[in-house]
Amino acid sequence: MSDSADSSTAASIDEAFEALSAATPEGWRVELIEGEIHVVPPANGEHEGIVNLMVEQVVERRKDRRWTTRTGLGLLISGISPTGKVVPDLVIVPRGSYMDELEYHDPSEVVLVGEVTSRSTGASDRSSKLRGYARAKIPFYLLVDRDADAVSLYSEPSSGQYTREATVAMSKTIVLPHPLGFELDTSEF
């Protein structure tokens, strides 16, 4: 495919994405992951509860106070799709990052993204987002997989994939290494 055809396809996909985003009911969101448009329903109480518990622990236990949490922050993850627009459940960034009016941001400042699986997102959380976050060289990807009753931390991205994985059963603790430097307790998840 020529560069002009690629540009035309990306522009068409971006236009469709923007149209769907504008038409999506409040609380829903649209993500474009590896060429597929996903319309994601509002999270259920359990999902949001887990995200909130993660946020609380990061805020209370992080060793370096320069890091802060964000939920609902859009990221531009090149290679995940022509537009690269995703909204992770949790993002950890340096304090003061992304304090602008943009909806989607370059992920270069992100130290960790977190996803909590649901029926509508579980498959992409385990595969295409895993690959996309690794290609973006985000140092850590925390996956709370409710279907597998497990929590995984992927790290050391290289050549478009994470080279290290640590997985624990839900209810155990998982180490979030430097720069966060604490154990995330999943017993309340």
Automatic annotation (TrEMBL):
Keyword tags: Endonuclease, Hydrolase, Nuclease
InterPro entries given in the database record: Nuclease_put_TT1808, Restrct_endonuc-II-like, Uma2
Record-level Gene Ontology MF annotations: endonuclease activity
Organism listed in the record: Streptomyces coryli
Superkingdom of source: Bacteria
Protein name stated in the entry: Uma2 family endonuclease
Sequence ranges assigned to domain Putative restriction endonuclease in this UniProt record: 15-186
PANTHER family: SLL1072 PROTEIN, SLR1083 PROTEIN
